[in-house]
DNA sequence: ACACATACGGATGAGCTATCCGTTTCGCGG
DNA sequence: CCGCGAAACGGATAGCTCATCCGTATGTGT
């Protein structure tokens, strides 16, 4: 899927690197910025990534893949409740750590099909873990599949609103999630 | 604080009305829009409300005042836990019902001092109710004052991410809050 | 009715997104 | 090594929104 010509491939990588930097700095990711910091023309950036969202989703893809991977692992755990709780913890930690992930998670319409696939997979895994925990009687029966993502987004948003420098966010997010999990537990 | 001249006062009201309409429609509140729909020049709108935030906060003020009022009432309730829970319910319901409130609540820096005052008051009431419930042993001791607003914002955000048309939001928000409250309860 | 203050309106500029097309670079076959 | 066609580059430019500024119009006290 990456371009054929060497320079194009190199630039693609470079743009992605710069974008990752900007996202990590907390900058709103403007394609002009990316172009300038990458030392490339605006046109080049736009050809590789037609919109800001496309770039953002591409930046977030590795993280989404990592989360999907963790989901696979979680399914192999013995304790249904612990597997469920661990998975949610991963999801929240990911979002709190990575600004790109938050935005991608909160968007209903994706521009990359890869993103849609990964989100679907993450959701499906969550649903399985939820079902397992519910069948084991460890999670309340009124929790629905499509509540999981919103709740995770809610927690990272709460953490964000709570303020504090990004460094201190993880403990806050864990605390909030812990509270939520107590509420979800049967 | 409203302008002196009659036409100015009339326009001020008119702008506010139009802004309220736009917010209720879910439109992102652009001052150019407001001007056009109010049949006024852009300059006029900008003179009355120097920034989008100023207008937004003014739109939200009545709701904030209502919430502050509810807080006063809640303090007179007998059951500490119920008073606390009811208050949080009010806060969430407000945010879910009113798009202006969400944005104002989530912003740390206010442009209107009135907004800051009201938010401080709402926060202070929440802190009192929390302290009372904690002293009664009905709420977990590790919940902090400055967690309340973030958590409420988190719930309304979760509700928003969950999607569904605005009409169906209230039940979802109540469900989420219920879960959270179970987690907060000692 | 006059004059001054106050307020209005829209032309204008600044910043960002996104496009388009002339120019440059790559890499393959001769 | 050279030339050529395709692929990629770069930046000028159009469209859009936010915000300002100032000449003009309107309200208000004398």
From TrEMBL, chains A, B:
Entry keyword Ligase: no
Q: Supply the InterPro entries for this chain.
A: Homeodomain-like_sf (IPR009057), HTH-type_TetR-like_transc_reg (IPR050109), HTH_TetR (IPR001647), Tet_transcr_reg_TetR-rel_C_sf (IPR036271), TetR_SbtR-like_C (IPR049445)
Q: Where is the HTH tetR-type domain?
A: 9-67
Q: Which UniProt keywords apply?
A: DNA-binding, Transcription, Transcription regulation
Query: What residues are annotated to bind DNA?
Result: 30-49
Query: What Pfam family is a match for this entry?
Result: TetR_N
Q: Kindly list the GO molecular function terms attached to this UniProt entry.
A: DNA-binding transcription factor activity; transcription cis-regulatory region binding
Cited PROSITE patterns = HTH_TETR_2
Under the heading PANTHER family, the entry gives: HTH-TYPE TRANSCRIPTIONAL REGULATOR BETI (PTHR30055:SF234), HTH-TYPE TRANSCRIPTIONAL REGULATOR RUTR (PTHR30055)
Protein name according to UniProt? DNA-binding transcriptional regulator, AcrR family
Q: Which organism is it from?
A: Lentzea waywayandensis
